[in-house]
Amino acid sequence: MKLSILISLVVVCAEAKFPPGFSFGAATSALQIEGAWLVNNRSLTVWDNLARVKGYVRDGATTEHTCNSYYMYDQDISMMKEYGIKHYRLSVQWTRILPLARDGTEPNKEAIKYYRAVLKTLREAGIEPYVNLYHNDMPAALFVEEDGRMDDEFPKHFAYYADICFKEFGDLVKWWFTFDEPWCQSAQTYCGPDECNTKPYKVGYQMILAHAEAVDVYRKKYQKEQKGQIGINLNIEMFWPLNPNSEADKKAARRNLMFQIGWYWNPIMTGEYPDEMTEILKERLPKFSEEQKEKVKGSADFLALNHYFSWVTEHGYNKSENDYDADVNSTNSYKKEWKVNNIGFSIVPEGIYESLMFVHNTWMKGSTMPIFITENGLSRAELNIADSLTDTERIDFIASYLSWIEKAISEGVNVTKYFVWSLMDNFEWGKGFTGNFGLIRIQYKDNYKRIPKSSLRWYSQLIKDSE
After folding, report:
1. Is the pLDDT of residue 137 over 60?
2. pTM for this predicted structure
3. Helix (H, G, I), strand (E, B) or coil at 101
4. 132-142: buried (b, 16+ CB within 10 Å) or exposed (e) per residue?
5. For 296, which of 118, 128, 212, 317 could close a Cys bridge (C-beta 3.0–4.6 Å)?
6. Residue 408: which domain range?
7. Which of 168, 237, 276, 375 does the annotation list as catalytic?
């Protein structure tokens, strides 16, 4: 490690003082690490199909094997135990547990047995599991047979699947998440030319209802006995006005935030969409019934945030499309002095502080509800083992972002947990195996050998020092 970097990291970590009980962990998702894509009656997800479309994934990677963690989970858990990681956010796959994906269909006993084994192994290793029910692994069957996430039946199907998970795993799991980054599923959904100004909002509406239905099931049937907590993972990018003196740019920055995190969190906190959305979208925004509002409002025990990058934004959208971006009506860019990682994410540590302050000041003042950072991390090219073993940029990234999180905490923001994305290199969607976020390197062509990086050793020491 270069001396200059080492000194800067020591200074950053020395300045960041986290409160007693603050938890440091790592995160993964099932589709990105498990592999075993058709094993024991697992059915296809949408991404299983997308990854086989030529040119869709940067390096041609597929979901067939990924990190082979389906068979190697005990080794992954052993490594976490060895390096002192005691909090692990993972996901279970809808298509394993419920291959037909629909309400009333038969659960897959082999999948339930498998996930119980994973969760028991975590518990035996002294690692607290945090389980996400849906991490970008939409069952393909619901697109073939129905209308996917936009279908009116989607909330019922998801709640049925969630009910199975609560029943089968609730004795081992005390922390649940319904969806990961539903904004990505809605704002970035595929749509035809005549539906791009309506479909995203229909998808978002059904996902909000599905979240609320699952939470309602948990609270009515399981929470009292199992004594767990349930919430949702929302992505938040920071948006600053390109011209800080421009009222139009300031409004554009706020509009971006409200169309992103506000789209989901405002209904959960108030029962209503943000004013910025209702004023622009009018009848194009599906309305909640009074019964739905009551179910949606308050449907989270905590707020979980994923944060990676930031933008500067200016008012105005100069393209002719009639779609989500036109509704937000802004043009986003990076400052020329910002560093950018190998997959195009800006590196702006202050952005996580500003994101937290925005959330706190908009919704959380006076609330005791905790906030978790459930994803934050750096992708690097890491073309060989040497690149992985000396990932000082990742150490610098994590340390810098943690320093800004601590600043938010010192100013009254109730952040209580932080999870690095990711425990290991994995299948990073359209970036395939080129998006290396892991604390652990995966040798895909060498029997999926796990190799700890410098960042894992550093993070391990950080956890130890914080205890």
Report:
1. yes
2. 0.96
3. coil
4. bbbbbbbbbbb
5. 212
6. 3-466
7. 375
Q: How many CB atoms lie within 10 A of CB 416?
A: 15
Handedness of CA 43, 47, 53, 58 (dihedral sign): negative
Mean pLDDT to the nearest integer, 65-71:
98
How many angstroms separate the CA atoms of 459 and 27, rounded?
13
How does DSSP assign 385-446, residue by residue?
HHHHHT-HHHHHHHHHHHHHHHHHHHTT--EEEEEEE-SB----GGGGGG-B--SEEEETTT
379 — phi, psi (to 5°)?
Answer: -90, 140
In whole angstroms, give the CA distance from residue 331 to residue 337: 18
Cis peptide before 346, with omega less than 30 degrees from 0?
no
Helix (H) or strand (E) holding 344: none
Q: How far is CA 53 from CA 186, 253, 344, 349, in A?
A: 21, 35, 22, 35
Q: How many domains does the chain have?
A: 1
350 is catalytic: no
Single out the catalytic residue among 34, 168, 181, 237. 181
CATH of residue 316's domain is 3.20.20.80
Tell me the C-alpha distance between 257 and 398, whole Å: 23
At position 387, the amino acid (one-letter code) is D
Mean pLDDT of 356-360: 98
Nearest-angstrom CA–CA distance, 364 and 43? 40
Q: Would you tell me how many other CB atoms lie within 10 Å of the CB of residue 461? A: 13
C-beta of residue 202 within 8 angstroms of C-beta of residue 273: no
Model confidence over 419-464: pLDDT tens digits?
Answer: 999 999 999 999 999 999 999 999 999 999 999 999 999 999 999 9
Note the pLDDT tens digit of each residue in 14-36. 446 899 999 999 999 999 999 99
- Quote the CA–CA distance of 303 and 192 in Å, as a whole number: 33
The reply to whether 393 belongs to the active site is no
3-state class of 448 per DSSP?
coil
For 123-207, strand residue ranges (E) read 128-134, 175-180
